[in-house]
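[Meeting: bench + compute handoff]

Bench side (C.D.) handed over the final construct sequence. Compute side (W.E.) agreed to return the predicted structure before the next meeting so the bench team could plan truncations. Sequence as handed over:
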Amino acid sequence: MRQFMEKYEFFVLPVNQVLPFDVNTHYPTEIAGVKMENYIAWMKSAYYISTVGNPAMSVPCAFSASGLPIGIQIVGRHNDDWGVLQMGYAFEQGTNIGRRRPAIV
């Protein structure tokens, strides 16, 4: 991660591997045919970033065809919390995604 961040200022990746799921579902037990070995396995893209200790934020980026929210993570260089906040703000201003709301059920 350190080598990657020496070359790139930000790392942008999905927050989760799945769309939001029914509240009665404890957790996704399979994703794209791959069995999830435990509760936290479906969140690998989020917790892998947490383990490296770089600042990161999750921001909305789109909606699925069925109207469910999709998020991305913006990860910055070590101790560059302010840079991550600035990038998140720039993304929000550039896309206006925060102004879109899903339909009320």
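W.E. noted at the follow-up: The CA atoms of residues 88 and 94 lie 10 Å apart. C.D. will use this when planning the next construct.
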